[in-house]
């Protein structure tokens, strides 16, 4: 599986967690694509961007959560690159069947992202527009990975959180869906064995 990590942090020089992600990912086979270095006056080379996505099986969108969404730079990239004839509409099947994974860093604690928490919604709920975009282009949206308290946690905790996430990002660990399917199969086989006994 070929993985590309599209890094949407607009200012990696002032990032702790996103920068650590890129540092650890640089030791993997994943392609790292920094949007902050891939535009000229916020104009992207659209054919190049589309070719990069077409060449990979998994697209990881790495970004800090800005006002409950992705940063403006990444949103502009998405608007500019996911065009008709490429991502949807007639002939727009180049992302169909690909896996898309959102990895986001969040300043607040996870307790704030739930019903009754101070942000009222989970990360998955807040990222529904992205989930629907992925579905619309006939790709598969993988379960979101979030690193909470990115403003407060110390360097050791950052390194540990990133080290745990990276194997999932590059497809070396089973996703929650795969683990669930295995659990169902195991239960099914146990039931068959019980009936046969």
TrEMBL record:
InterPro entries: Flavodoxin_fold (IPR003680), Flavoprotein-like_sf (IPR029039), KefG/KefF (IPR046980)
Coiled coil feature spans: none
Keywords: Oxidoreductase
The Flavodoxin-like fold domain, residue ranges: 1-165
Entry's Gene Ontology molecular function annotations: electron transfer activity; FMN binding; NAD(P)H dehydrogenase (quinone) activity
Domain of life: Bacteria
Protein name per UniProt: Flavodoxin family protein
Organism, scientific name: Paracoccus siganidrum
